[in-house]
Amino acid sequence: MAEQTFRPGDNSFVASDAPGHQHGAFFEDDGETGYFYAVDLTRAENKVLDAMSIYDVKNVTARDRPSVLSIVWSGDGLKCALLINGHAHAVFDFAAKRGFCRTNFPNFPDRCDGRWPSSDHGWSEDAVAWLQ
């Protein structure tokens, strides 16, 4: 598990690799937005498989208070969740090649080339059932 205390809008970066697998995830706050990314660590280029918007800094009401960001992995290393203050905001399921986030953004037409689909990031409570 990767964990960091941060304030939304303070240019943050937190990364974590899956235990025993060749994929990982990272969170980045560039001062304006917070995004969560899935990556394939075996690729030399184009490592990002998917990206999901977590927040726009201007819309975060408690941005002046410190928050705790965690990236946690399932026991099998095939799922990871982004938690902020213990609350799940996004999940990547590497086996299903699917991302879930509360904002359901951004969504792009699928490329039909066998890559990770990105046309729907809709939230599902089933996606975080493994956290219980």
Largest sheet entry: 5 strands, antiparallel
Number of strands: 9
Number of helices: 0
Following the backbone from N to C, one meets helices and strands in this order, namely EEEEEEEEE
> Main sheet: which strands, in order across?
1-6-7-8-9
The mean pLDDT is: 93
- Quaternary state of the chains: single chain
Based on CA atoms alone, the radius of gyration comes out at: 14 Å
Number of domain units: 1
Which helices and strands occur, and which strands form pairs?
Blueprint: E1 2-6, E2 12-17, E3 23-29, E4 33-40, E5 48-56, E6 67-73, E7 79-84, E8 87-93, E9 98-101
Antiparallel strand pairs: 1-6, 2-3, 3-4, 4-5, 6-7, 7-8, 8-9
What report would you give on this structure?
There is one protein chain. With 132 residues, the protein is mainly β. It has one domain. Helix content is 0%, strand content 45%. The protein contains no helices and nine strands. It has strands at residues 2-6, 12-17, 23-29, 33-40, 48-56, 67-73, 79-84, 87-93, 98-101. It is globular and about 40 Å long. The model has no long low-confidence stretch (mean pLDDT 93).
